[in-house]
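User: I'm putting together notes for a lab meeting next week and I want to include a structural view of one of the chains we've been expressing. I don't have a solved structure, so I'd like a prediction I can at least talk through. The sequence is below, exactly as it appears in our construct file.
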Amino acid sequence: MRVLQGIAKLVLGIFLLAGIRGMLGNFPVYLPTRYLLTPPMQAFLTGGFLFILMEFIYFSRKGRFWATLSHELSHAVFALLFLRPVHRLSATRKRGGLVEIEGGNFVIALAPYAFPLNSLLLLILSSLIQSNYQLILSGAVGFTYFFHLTSLIKEAYPSQPDLLLSGRVFSYVYIVFFNLLFLMVIVLGINGQWQQLSAFLRDSAQTIWQDISHTGHFLLKKT
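Assistant: Thanks for the context. Below is the predicted structure for the 223-residue chain, given as structure tokens.
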């Protein structure tokens, strides 16, 4: 079973690496400078700046509880999505947190590092509500997204148990892939560019397929 899991991770890792290359290549095409100067994006960056101020003023000293709670909730949410019972969840400011899950997998283990859940939920809400509160929601997305990035930098260290459980190399490839993906989702979503996002995903998927096909042809020629 472990051998099969290792092979599956290797194959998935190759796809993710190709995806990272594809997304980086498509960023300049689908993320022109003008998208960074729109009012929603300015509100997003303002929210991020406010979080950085709060990080220095409050979160770095007394706000550890919120980072721990968000971390454990991410594990729990993805456990429930995979129909894994969650028996216990706790979060403290000084002693860290704990979530007891019946069973698990690498998606559950890496969820706090790969998926900015709070930002994505606010982005969905922002896309559904067309009102005077749009810029406020965009700012809230920025605040929570910078919260995610800060937590990621602090928590995704090489000896992190979640990363060791899934394998360091695979974990970092997985984390980079999904953070790049959701960065584009959030930036284009903030600007209401959903068709552009669809085109970005399509072209990135085509790049993945082309890279895998070329690699396959190369290996067949060698054999």
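A couple of points you could mention at the meeting. Residues 114 and 175 are 5 Å apart (CA to CA). The chain has one domain: 36-213.

User: Perfect, that's what I needed.
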